[in-house]
From TrEMBL:
The lineage of its organism: Bacteria, Bacillati, Actinomycetota, Actinomycetes, Propionibacteriales. InterPro entries: 6-blade_b-propeller_TolB-like. This is WD40 repeat domain-containing protein. The chain crosses the membrane at residues 55-75. Keywords: Membrane, Transmembrane, Transmembrane helix.
Length: 400
């Protein structure tokens, strides 16, 4: 099997936790309908998986890349969920120029930040920007997914079978994934190494372990920079951290899912999912083995490039996807600096751009929009809306 050396079924009972987990993983690998995205589903239910959008527990999964979407319960931004949900203010969209051009996919077209477009041979459901390369993930012929490394002209350099899209560190230098043989792999410019392994045996077509986040690098060899890869389970096990110095342990106290991590040891996690699908979590500091804060008001998802803010979604939302997202101060987990919410709209994919804006997709009335939201309070539309189904987004932001 080739690797990127040049960088660069279900259980008999379906608990609320299992449903939430399945939605989380579905969100990270949205529309990979031939892959086992859902622990309560098999290939024969692929069309249903496509409609199970980002879950409140997963990304992104209770978040897995990407990610979560509980389908068993309905929620909205005005439901106080027992006093958990904050007051949200509907934002209007500014028509000013966006802070910068983002990298994104539209069908098989790769829109690059410099304005160039590149036509690709395949449509990728998730992608990260790794140096001047694109690492895209698409559905495969079997249970696992196909992840390909492409050069700036769209040529495939390497290809591998993975359990999920790759994770990328906060400096964009190092990627991580779980191979179809259970090896936990990392790669950087000029090097690649396995830092551990997991057991992938699972009932039916369940994906046992997926790569959720990576910190450290760029060189993940034991005697170099060191790396920690965070793994999410779809077998009702706690999230784990596998490091290049041989440690394989729980990711954080009580962590059911990991969303993201930073180079200074902060990890965004979900720690609780109740019978109604509400979630709680927070930011865990691995250096002190303590939580910076815990909250049930948000799912704490991706960190901003400087680590000062995070993308927060409702702690619970229905199977169509979240109706809002907010940019929240990562120091206290409470102070919102911007948010997006519109009546009848749902939010699809989201990620941070290198200059600190959130690029996200939103759906309304048969149209998909590509949006940018900054910590300065601006919200702008980046491209002409495109027609599409509510489960097949017309745009896919590329993560850096």
């Amino acid at each position: 099997m080739n690797h990127p050396t040049d960088p660069t079924n279900p259980a008999p009972d379906e608990s609320a936790w299992e449903v939430a987990m399945s939605r989380d993983f579905d969100a990270r690998v949205r529309d990979l309908h031939e892959a086992p995205l859902d622990i309560t589903s098999v290939k024969g239910k692929a069309h249903k998986i496509k409609r199970n959008r980002r879950a409140a527990v997963a990304g992104g999964v209770l978040g897995v890349a990407a990610i979560v979407t509980p389908i068993a319960v309905l929620a909205n931004s005005t439901d106080d969920a027992g006093g958990r949900s904050p007051e949200f203010v509907e934002q209007t969209t500014d028509t000013a120029a966006p802070p910068a051009n983002p990298d994104y996919l539209q069908g098989t077209t790769w829109h690059q930040a410099d304005g160039d477009t590149v036509e690709l041979d395949h449509e990728y459901q998730q992608a990260v920007q790794w140096g001047d390369r694109l690492v895209g993930t698409r559905s495969g012929p079997e249970v696992y997914l196909v992840t390909e490394v492409l050069d700036e002209d769209g040529n495939v350099i390497e290809s591998m079978n993975t359990t999920s899209p790759v994770a990328i560190n906060d400096t964009g230098t190092t990627i991580a994934w779980v191979e179809d043989n259970g090896q936990v792999m990392t790669a950087w410019d000029g090097g690649e190494t396995a830092i551990g392994s997991v057991e992938l045996a699972a009932p039916g077509e369940t994906i046992a372990w997926t790569a959720a986040a990576i910190s450290g690098g760029p060189d993940c060899n034991e005697d170099a920079d060191g790396c920690v890869v965070y793994l999410n389970s779809n077998l009702d096990e706690d999230a784990r951290a596998v490091s290049s110095d041989g440690i394989n342990d729980i990711a954080a106290d009580g962590a059911k899912r990991v969303f993201d991590s930073t180079s200074d040891g902060a990890v965004s996690v979900v720690t609780e999912v109740d019978d109604f699908g509400d979630t709680c979590g927070g930011i865990y500091e691995t250096q002190t083995s303590a939580f910076r804060f815990e909250t049930c008001d948000y799912q704490v998802q991706q960190f901003s490039p400087n680590g000062d803010f995070f993308i927060g979604t409702q702690s619970q939302f229905d199977g169509a996807g979240p109706s809002r997202i907010a940019l929240v101060d990562a120091a206290d987990g409470q102070t919102e600096v911007n948010s997006f919410e519109r009546d009848g709209w749902i939010v699809g994919d989201w990620t941070w751009s290198p200059d600190g804006a959130v690029i996200f997709t939103a759906y309304e009335g048969g149209r998909w929009h590509l949006m940018a939201m900054t910590v300065d309070g601006d919200t702008t539309e980046l491209a002409e809306p495109v027609r599409g189904d509510d489960f097949a987004t017309g745009f896919r932001p590329i993560r850096h």
